[in-house]
Amino acid sequence: MEKLKNYIHGQWVEGTGNGIPLYNAVTGEQVAVSDTEGLNFEQALDYGRTVGYKNLSSMTFYDRGEMLKKVALYLLERKKKYYELSYKTGATHVDSWVDIEGGFGTFFTYSGLAKRMLPNTPFWVDGDTQKISANGTHLGTHILTPSEGVSIQINAYNFPVWGMLEKLSTSLLAGVPSIVKPSPFGSYLTNAVFQDMIESGVLPEGAVQLICGEPGNILDYVQDGDSVLFTGSAHTGRKLKSLPSIAGNAVRFNMEADSLNCSILGLEAKPGTPEFDLFIKEVRNEMTTKAGQKCTAIRRIIVPEHLIGDVQNALSKALDQTKIGNPLSRETRMGSLVGRQQYEEVLRKVNLLKSETELVYDGKHELVDANYENGAFMSPKLFLNDKPFEKNISHDVEAFGPVSTLMPYKDAEEAAALAKRGKGSLVGSIVSHDENFIAETSWKMASQHGRIFVLNRDNAKESTGHGSPLPTLMHGGPGRAGGGEEMGGLSGLHFFLQKTAIQGSPDVLKAITKIYQQGAEKRFSDKHPFQKYFEEVEVGDSLETAGRTVTEADIVNFSNVSWDHFYAHTDATSLTGTIFDKTVAHGYFILSAAAGLFVSGKKGPVIANYGLEDCSFFKPVYAGDTITVYLTAKEKINRGVKGRNIPSGVVKWLVEVVNQRDEVVCVATILTLVAKQSPFIDLNVKNVQKILNGLTESTPALWGKMSPQQMIEHLEQAVLVSFGEPEAEQCFTPEEHLEKWQDSLYNHRAMPKEFTAPFLPQNGSLPELTHKNLEAAKQSFVDNLKKFVIYYKENPQAEHMNYVFGKLNKEMWELMHRKHFTHHFQQFGLI
Care to name a GO molecular-function term for this sequence (predicted)? Predict the structure, then answer.
């Protein structure tokens, strides 16, 4: 039987013991053995702290985000084999989708957040700069850096893929190396995904390690800077948290434990209402998805006392329709528990619940293509607690399977009180269309819940469901639920980061944070900042504008154009008792006039105004005042660009407007999209001629079989086709791939060296030469390039077919030629 290998200190290592046999939850057949005996855990931790930390922490947040995306794409291409293994854990296709592709989706989400919101630096500036001295020569701010240690991540058996990836998404993005310790049950699926993560070659050495089996004494070796993330029972979590190595070494500990989550049906949601039907469907889904093996599943069904019978009947009928059995059968809607050991544990909890509450539904015991003897199947079980304020077992015992308990309530006060008797839950839901009931219940129960999910007819179509933690929202809960927090968008990174206050002069803070601070030295140059590409802009680049004297006509005209006739701008007789001496210029006029002073009218790399932040007006500007603007590059944010957008980054510019007395009247931050410098040559004919001067008959090709003249004639043919002489007869790229290929013209990725043009002869031969020699070919090529430029000036809307990219317009042809020329000029070492 295959023994699952562990991945520690950069190597796949097999345990030396007998290990734990792992079984197919559906058939009972042995699948694998997990074994960690003989592993050097101390060495694994040290490897992570040294090699892993050095490699990850030196990367920027932006690059780590790109890393997550590449890993997720690599795994997505191989998802079929993960599903085949997931069925062996008892999971249906839908269960597996949530686990597998839900895990990949978490990586994609955090990649997107990083590329939109995090800096292209290994640290992250947190919050605004604080002025902590009278004259602003001493400032303070905070930076976040990766905690110098390794993260041990102990996951539960119910989500072998998502459980690993949701923790790794934040730790890897934060720059902290991790050791993944899945539950042995289902670890063969975790192992398969992890193997592909390593084989992708995307993750730096030491970033991740894997222990498939018992954790042994690994927690004995944790130290300051390390962290432990635990998902599992509250009892085990509390035990780990109190270990001397954790409690005594200030090791960060995050626990996400089991919880007795509830769902509350609104008082008004009687049978026949959309909310009643939604409630039944949601409870059934939460009882049967993953066979109830979800830390977010509904364990307590809180219902108005006059609707208990209706809910019991409707829910029983809905559960009757849920076919249980082999996940590979199309009929199956609920699979098995993960194994016989878990089955026995759930059965023990069911018997405890029976001691105080009534089992009112035990399900149909028919199975699809499976049997109870071999598999770990359990029918859904519904209990009734008729006195939930007296019988406490429903609030104390969680059966981690398809088991839930009905309980009645009288009013919103009682509903919230029952919800809180779970002593801390990951999620509670309210299904109601009564906004007053929802509001009163939700804020009263919020203190004992990590998430409150409200469902009704208005959001049902797009709802993600009671039991679905989302990457952008916090997953965790107080009290019994462990008191931990995971995900929650960028907040989920804070657990892995050290927050440090930084104090110093404006120039010192600028040097440390790479963000311009007011009062720091400005850099002036003859080149307008808006004429610089993203790579050329440096924080501190500045422009001082000419002055502009504001007139009465300016104020009147702006009032008429904007329709802003606020009295302070238009009625001098109404200013008594105000802060104004006379009619005042509109604040937005001052900002607009400032833009008029600092923008560069000439076309350049600045693509568009992207936004406005932190705009403040400090002093009134009256007719006769003269304003001057200081524009300074404040911060640069790298940016991932998709589709047919120009590769660009965001530059934040500090705008400081002063009057003739050098008093600051307005400060704002504007955001611009600034194009990145293209790595491809432009279509300037003189430039192309200059490059071609270096090409001779004896110039060797660095790759491929073309001679210099064949290359030039090949380029000339592409230019001729681009203005229809001759018109390409067909496109060789399938229609369904054309959009992707056309999008690729806009990015800055070079054409692949090994690409074979589909219109060339399939036998590998090259077209016959048409010009008498290389010089004649070069001259003809340049002449036709001139014709191309003139043609599209005269016919800007023209489109012509390309053999690979389909029908292209002027912009696309220019982009194609730039890439194509660069590709072949590099082929012969000309650029």
Answer: oxidoreductase activity, acting on the aldehyde or oxo group of donors, NAD or NADP as acceptor
